[in-house]
Amino acid sequence: MWSLILRRIMVAIPTLFLVMVFVFILQRLLPGDPLLVMAGEERDPAVLEDLRKLYGFDQPLPMQFLIWMREVFSGNFGVSLRTSIPVTELIAQTLPVTIQLAVASIIIALLIGIPMGILAAVKKGTTVDYVASAVSLSGLSIPNFWLGIILILVISVQLRWLPASGFVSVFDDPVEALRVTIMPAFVLGSGLAAALMRHTRSAMLEVLRLDYIRTARAKGLLPHTVILRHALRNALVPIVTLSTLLFGQLLAGAVLTEQVFTIPGFGKLIVDAVFNRDYGVVQGVVLCTAVAFILMNLIADVLYILINPRLRTG
Amino acid sequence: MSVAALETEVIAPARSRVLTKFLRNRSAVIGAVMVGIFVALAVLAPLISPYDPNQTNFAALRKPPSMAHWLGTDELGRDILSRVMHGGIASLYAGVLSVAIALLIGLPIGLAAGWYTGAVDAIISRATDALLAVPFLILAIAFAAALGPSLTNAMIAIGLSQVPIFVRITRGQVLAIRNEDFIEGARAVGVADFMILLRHVTPNIMPPLLVQATLTVAVAIIAEASLSFLGLGQQPPAPSWGSMLNTAKNFLEQAPWMSFSPGAAIFFVVLGFNLFGDGLRDALDPRET
Asked: Between A and B, how many residue pairs show a Cβ–Cβ distance under 8 A?
């Protein structure tokens, strides 16, 4: 088992290296000289030359890559070219906002997706199954920014039940945080719930066919005991790994959801950076996202090995 | 068996079996019809749309739906129905062209990875993993930022960010058939690698790629709308469903109808492609009966 985990970690290292190469190349592709932005309005050639030396831009490209890698590994993801605030600081400010939104949306997705998936599998071929599948396919097809706009229109503008925008930390005011977060979290969670429902349904259908379920039923166990204690426990193996992989979808969805609900999170940081041509931030955010995603993949792989008894003993 | 005999005795019945299976699947047919209507409306938009989509009318600013303007007018008095119809062209372009880009780049790279294995495969697979490590929309935003905001660049950005998925699927399919008898046979009689890949491997791995391409059109349409919504896709005044929603969200109280139809259009088209793709996958899957 440990050799398998070690092998997964070894595979993640070259992937991480290539992500760094990719982000570096992307930065070189970006139009305009970042130093011109930093030099300000006057663009004094002497200042430009100093900045070029300071950031190692006078070195050949491979050398620049090595310098950049050294900086990244020492925790320096670069600085915002507009505000000179370190990118790590900007990420540290905005990430908790997105994490609060993401956690709330995962809870909503789990609460909707898994029970719906179980129900659809147990009632396969009935109206319940068709309705659940239709809802799930609609959830996958609906653009979440449109769902957000429609919810704002109905719940905030017409009914005036919930605020349409803003952010309150759950640690400052839990009740207000819930009021502000629930609508964007539902918007972000709906796509995840749809994906989870589909995977839960197919995983449950696979498991419900197996002999040990038939044995459990033959023993006279109650239906809900068979489904929840015997079937779901095994069906959860692929669902758990999938949930970690949905992390990428969550981050991408957060970009749009934060834009619709004007939430000052990680997603809004990258969009604002793109419009402000703040390439330092774009580069830092893309790298940070990729590293987090690789780690999540690694965790998914390790979890899969740990919770799958056949791999655990192997 | 001659090639002609093979065509009439094996391939043609298999094709009709796939078609029969597809036509028996009601939701797949509904999906196909929805896709058909969308394509027809987008292609015919310049001929059948009631107004010029960019024609402003300051006497009809933010008018609710009426007989003159079935879906109402926007903040500049432009007819929303005409803009939704013309917005379909941008979505159709984005869907088809970005999938074409992803396929044209992803297919040869995936073929090389699956065919040559070893170091070539290792390098391509790691590069694919690296690109897949960045969430799709963030990758598309990064590309769109690098290339500059425009519909063409959004399509290129979406296409490029879908390349790794096609590489991975192609590679997997090639690995699955590379040791089949008909491939070994072609190799044994000295057919060049390029010709084997072109004439024997590619046609045999097309079905799963076709399914992926259909589902990717749906992803690309949402991605184009998302990029346009963020201001990185189609630029005003040219109509796009995403940019229409971006404007509409500023007029939720004054003109709520502005935000309804562009989003509904995205929803139905994406739903159509998803139903169509799912049906195609089921029809092409030999395990499904």
From this structure: 124
A55-81 pLDDT, tens per residue? 777 788 888 888 888 888 888 877 787
Residue A150 counted as domain residue = yes
Percentage of chain B exceeding pLDDT 90: 52
Whether A133 is in a domain gets the answer yes
Whether B250 and chain A come into contact, CB under 8 Å, resolves to: no
Q: Which domain holds residue A192?
A: 90-277
In a domain, A167, yes or no: yes
Nearest neighbour of A143 by CB, restricted to B232, B252, B266: B266
ipTM field: 0.86
The CATH number that applies at residue A242 is: 1.10.3720.10
Window 188-247 of B: residues touching A by CB (8 A cutoff) are 218, 222, 225-226, 229-232, 245
User: A290 or B205: whose pLDDT is higher?
Assistant: B205
Structure tokens at B63: 């008018």
Q: What topology is assigned to B3-284 in CATH?
A: MetI-like fold (1.10.3720)
**Mean pLDDT of all residues in B85-110:** 93
In a domain, A305, yes or no: no
Cβ-based contacts of A248 with chain B (< 8 Å): 135-136
Are A149 and B271 in contact (CB < 8 Å)? no
pTM of structure: 0.85
In chain B, what residues touch A94 (CB-CB under 8 Å)?
none
Count how many domains chain A has: 1
**Which residues numbered 209-268 in A keep a CB inside 8 Å of some CB on B?**
248-249, 251-253, 255-256, 259-260
Q: B225-255 pLDDT, tens per residue?
A: 999 999 888 888 899 999 999 999 999 889 9
Residue B271 and residue A137: Cβ atoms within 8 Å?
Answer: yes
Average pLDDT over chain B, rounded to an integer: 88
Q: CB of A10 within 8 Å of any CB in chain B? A: no
Instruction: Tell whether B287 is within 8 A of chain A (Cβ).
Output: no
